[in-house]
Fold each of these.
Amino acid sequence: MKVYYRLSNQSAGGHKDKLPHATKQHCLINTVSVFGKNNITVIGDNLNDETTKMVESLELKLTPVSNGNGSSTFRDALNLALEENSGDDIIYLLEDDFLHKPKASKIIQEGVRRYDGYITGYDHPDKYLDKTIGGNPFIDSGGEVTRLVKTNSSHWKITNSTVMSFATTHNRLKADKDLLYKHSSDNITNSFSLFLELSQQYGIPCMSSIPGVSTHVESNWLSPLTNWNK
């Protein structure tokens, strides 16, 4: 599996309350420990000298870009992944504010090999928050209508959406490139609309591991049932 890691000195959406240890450096080091440095390409958007040196100290491949917004850097990562891979190669497009459990690489790859869709290790808490109190518009009574399935190492559910960190095959990305571009045409990507269109119009599922093997590091949106401070 090849990881295309979108790194910026900026924080998307302004200041967010995050896990205190989950710095840009810590998240990247965690990614290296789980996926291996030889499998990671960093797409660095307007990195300052300190962050550039940090990436170089980890001996990671760095592709510098100058965008200033997440959607353009997502498309750069997508294009590079399509250019460097082929066929059933597994690709993980990843943001710079995630943490992963040690077995995340194995489990995410299992999901991609089993299901022709988009795979995430992030069990997004909005799937347990009713629409009446500001949660996901498809959630009632603390959950979404879904199907529960399993691979050798994890349970999975079909979920209505995830964020713009996901794994799939080169073939899947190539087939869906126009949709991926469509929903990343503004300065901020629209992941919710992307996955709704993929599932509702084209029958392409988004699958989430249960429990989550990764998390966004924003404190209010951590994958449940794990002490991510550890």
Amino acid sequence: MTAYIIKRLFISIPVLFGILLVTFVLARLIPGDPCKAILGEKATVEVCEKFKIRFGLDKPIHTQFMLYSKRVVVGDFGNSIRFSRPVSQILVERFPVTIELALGGLVVAIIVGVFLGIISALKHNTSIDVGTMVLANIGISMPVFWLGLMLAYLFGLLLKDTIFWLPPSGRLTAGLSSIPFFEVWGWEVVKGTTKSKVLEFFANHYIFNAFITGNWEIFKDAIRHMILPVIALSTIPMAIIARITRSSLLEVLGRDYIRTARAKGVKNTNVVTKHALRNAMLPVVTILGLQMGGLLSGAVLTETVFGLAGVGRMLVEAIYARDYPIIQAFTVMVAVAYMLINLIVDISYGFLDPRVRLE
């Protein structure tokens, strides 16, 4: 298994290089001039020339790519054209929001999706089965942005004066602030260093930061603000997981060793949990890797609808502003996350199916 992991990591290197190259080229094929997008249409030719020289946009595209690749290897994504700040610092601030949202959506999708799939398979051809699959089809059909707006309208406006009210936007209630754990614990951290960026990255996960510092007011408030975005984002993968779980479990329940176990008098609960469910999980685990990529991409719309300052929202703003360093860095980071998730999925096969370990 160790050799397999090392091999996969080496294979990932040319894939990342290809993603970096494609993103670099496509970003520059976007119609429009970064100078005009940021400084306005009235910017003179002289001003734009100085602008391009300042950000290295006056050089040939292949030279720009070579210089950028050398910086990326050492973890330097350059400075944002729009904000004149290191892109790495913006990533530290923005990426935790997207991770919280995507992980929350994945957890909800797995728990609810697998549960509905199991119930539907065990109640095959009953009203429960039909009702569950109808809900799954409705879930797949609803666009994230529409569902997000409806949830915000229902729980944020119509139910405003009830106990069911939920915040329709933002990460924390106005007036509350999340103090980083390293400041709470009195750690001495020099700002701008790699160590400080790593610590800030984890501290910007508000739910995690509040949990380890015992700040339960921030913890509960951060979770309440994440409920609606997570529900909106998890609906489509939840429906897909439910359908895959149902079909996979139905196939396994029809196999000979299941009938043998039942003929021996094994309880139906043990048949399902110990014999059928584990073998039925392989297709489900496979689809989880693909759905995580969908959650990361779906975060673009979800963050925009609910006013969350994450990677997705920043990426949209960067595309409008032709902020090439942010577009490239955020795309590469999402690609790295997607590849790591798929690696974890492949490794999990060995725990679910012993035959994979033998191979």
Amino acid sequence: MLQMLKTHRHAVATGGCIIAFAIELAAATLGGALPTPLPLFPSDNWWNVDVSAAPTDINSSAYITFINNGTTRQLHPDFGGEASPGSVSIYGFPYVVVDGTQTKRAVHFQYSDESDGVNHTTDQSYPFYPIPDEAIAQPHWVEGGEPGNIDRRSSADRHLLIVDRDNRHLYELYNVFYDGAQWHAGSGAFFDLNTNGRRPDGWTSADAAGLAILPGLVRYDEVFGPNEINHALRVTVRATNGYVFPASHRAGSTTGALPMGARLRLKASVNLSALPAETQKIFRAMKRYGLIVADNGSDMYISGTFDTRWDNGVLNPAFRSLTASDFEVVERGWRPQGGVLPGPPQNLRITSGS
């Protein structure tokens, strides 16, 4: 732990105070507190838009039939803790919170023409990503669990998500690897959490759709916090066809499949009252904000954070109680008239029949 802490220049009277100051000044924290205000991005961002009254897509039923693929696709929580107690392998996306002094590192990309931190005239990478050294050799800092110096790029996604809490900046990398001298990745993207900047059309991010990943994850702190989840959630499907707003990038052309950026909405008629309270909160967000298709993967897999406090004995059966047929597709590319996106609900009252 001491290697993760910045040196504090002022002497403090008691050892307890020294520890308190050191922890507060930690330069890099795995799963640390995110900068407020929450949710991430401005209140009028597409992740935070209320779609409960948005029109249903004319082809909604056909899209749901495609997802079901001749059966009934159940929801699955694609997040959790360690694969087994003390294991390197993990479920879900870890994320790292750093301060504004974290040293920037150059990353060399496979898809440099669509990545940030690259001089696109010379195709040369420059120091841009605040990657903490702990991610090199320590497990659990990179998606999948193995440290950055293990090369699993051919068999795993290996995302690395970093938040600069002082500047409210988000850096996301796909398929990372540290070769002993420098960092490599498939692609990388920067998002200013103070603005609604969208990727250029045709550009990917660390996600196939060109969207940010972290704002769409189910997080433990919000599920068990006092407030509702006020943002859409990230979902994968097995195949896609083009892209629509807010996505910027395609990763498939399968006839009958949803485009990247499409939004699935849990039907208002679905009764959640028999489910555990914490899962009801997750599913209420699916009714109000929906699920945004962000990548190709397993059908109806909902993304969340790596956190050892998750109880999959509760999550798995609750998610399996819902299927793709409980959802409808919001009109593709829909956005509020005039471009004004409503903010989170106010004075919300929850009833047992929600």
